[in-house]
Amino acid sequence: VAQKIYVELNNTVPCVRLLNATHQIGCQSSISGDTGVIHVLESEADLEWPLSKGPNPPYMVLLESSLFTKSIMMKMKNASSRVAGVVVVPKTSPPEFSPHTTCPNENTGVYTETYDHNLAHCNTTVWNPRGNGLSYEEFDFPVFSLKEDNETEVIKQCYFDHNRVVNGSGLQYPLCAMQLFSHMHAVTDTATCMRRSNISLSLSLSLSLSLTVMVCDPLGGYNVCAFIRPYNSTAFGHKENESVVIAAARLDSKAFFLEDSTGAEGSVSGFVTLLAAAQALCEATQEAPRTRNILFAFFHGEVFDYIGSSRMVYDMKNNMFVIDLDNVHSILEIGQVAVRSGTNLFLHSDPVSRRNNTVHDEVTNLVKNLQSSTAGLNFSFVETDFSQPLPPSSFQRFLRARAIPGIVLADHQTDFNNRYYESFYDNAAHLNLTYPSNLSPEEQLEFVTDTAKVLVILLLLTSQCKKPDELPNESTYLYSYLWVQGMVPPNSTQRESFCVRTAVRLVKAVSPAFDLGDYVSKEYSTWTKSQWKFIKARIFLVASRDLEMLTLGVGVAVLFTSLLVTYFVSTKADVLFSSVREPNNAAY
Taxonomically, which superkingdom (predicted)? Predict the structure, then answer.
């Protein structure tokens, strides 16, 4: 029966709830899901129907990405009693759209009131002027994104067949409706949800229950780290006579719909560039070893108040990493580098730490070396104004701990070139990355792009595994060993698997606030993500209120009639079902 009533939508992405030390953001449905009559929004003026004129609230508003703006979303938020939910259809990209803030990570970077109040809160440079802060709003109705064109057409056809008003005429039942399920377990803030999770865990342990209901989880993952010359992974703390240059980039990105955060320019451009540099440096240093070691660090969770970099700094300060801060000579970070306006890339440095002559001299030397390296190339490195602060970057977390020479390389001199910073439009199309036109969708999945070839450098500093007796001085504390599935050779169906030895390590990237139990920390990230039971979307036809009440009334009448009949039959059963006994001497 359910299959005949409902059309399930299987390719959707929900907006979910995130929490930090002070509040919650994101979206959720009621515990039983939210249901509304579908209305396709064709222009902003068309909002009048679901927000005031429409006779059948609440409405489930379907809109294309060109109408997915903060002004429209806030109007629906302020009239949430008439809006059951919002469904976004990603289509053509607008000229610009950034749901992030204008000053990313402003409260957890280095520029605070105590470091230099003139540079705090992006006072001198607004890095993301297009930011509208939509991702940091809270909506008490579900918001979904549709990923499948066929499902979009099914919804629109259902709307046109049943819901569309023509020439002002009234709607005829049945109407096309939608139901969205995205109820979030966590509420209020991180301290509240972590307390409830801990209570649930304690009860499960004390009662020996196998099922623990976690309310929320800390955001995070793993940093990816690799040294040119690997260190013993079990020997933490300071390394005598060791000087290390950190080459860094961030791995993660964010969007209003968290699972849609591709971050092509925001993050991928930086870490792919660093991977290519790592490959080149690896080959060069094998031929001519350098006096300084190099740590390639790819930080995770940076968009959420620098989770990965703050974790590494915390571990270095507490002798929980293979080197400490005193071993760090300098830092070179690759930021957004894909959208260049001209032939220049820009070198950003920290004006406050450069007031120290030693740091200033090291930064000046680093700038000169980088600028000289572009000789003969079709671009150049340009140093930004000394008075300008660093853009949002992992380097800032190291500066909070110690004055370290460093440079952030980016494609922007002042504010971001990225028109879609931390949005689902920051994708391959934004960077004009395309597949060959003669490839089918299936062939595109198999096609190996130049970017994918560069990513294979995660075999960085790797070699084929050898037998133990061929490597008598081998140390498992210097390397890790992985079995790689390998590729399928031409004219074959079997993958060529092999073992690799690598110096690449995964290091936990979870905010120190959760180790310290400080869920209201102002020093470290406190972001968590709510858990949920299930995510589901479906459409169906809904009858008129009068018909529903008539059906209910008939059903109640039938129920009471059947009860009366049952009672009557029960009380008269001895009469209705008795049989006349024949005499014992009856003969035939």
Answer: Eukaryota
Instruction: Give the alpha-carbon dihedral of 32, 34, 38, 41, to 10 degrees.
Output: -150
What pLDDT, in 10s, does the model give residues 449-491? 665 554 447 444 555 565 555 665 667 788 887 787 877 787 8
- The neighbouring-strand residues paired with 127 are none
C-alpha radius of gyration, the chain, whole number: 31
Q: Is the peptide bond before 230 cis (omega within 30 degrees of 0)?
A: no
Place of tokens 């930064």: 363
Sign of the Cα torsion 274, 276, 280, 286 reads: positive
Structural contact between residues 87 and 50, judged by C-beta atoms closer than 8 angstroms: no
* Beta carbons of 13 and 257 less than 8 angstroms apart: yes
pLDDT tens-digit map of 397-422: 999 999 999 999 999 999 999 999 99
3-state secondary structure of 63: strand
Distance in angstroms (rounded) separating the CA atoms of residues 308 and 280: 25
Structural tokens at position 67: 């109408």
Residue 345: both structure tokens together: 């890339």
| Burial of residue 206, with CB atoms counted within 10 A of its CB: 0-12 exposed, 13-18 middle, 19 or more buried | exposed
Question: Residue 448's pLDDT is what?
Answer: 63
Handedness of CA 99, 101, 105, 107 (dihedral sign): negative
Lowest-pLDDT range, 122-131, 210-219, 365-374, 415-424?
Answer: 210-219
Q: Which of 46, 85, 174, 78 is nearest to 548 (CA)?
A: 174
Residue for token pair 């009048």: 48
The residue behind tokens 């409902």 is 6
pLDDT digits (tens, 9 = 90+) for 238-249: 999 999 999 999
pLDDT of residue 486: 78
- Paired with 385 in beta bridges are none
- Provide the residue type at 142 as one letter: P
Beta partners for residue 18, in sequence order: 25, 529
State both tokens at 33: 């899901």
CA distance 299 to 318: 19
Cβ-in-10-Å burial (0-12, 13-18, 19+) of 438 comes to exposed
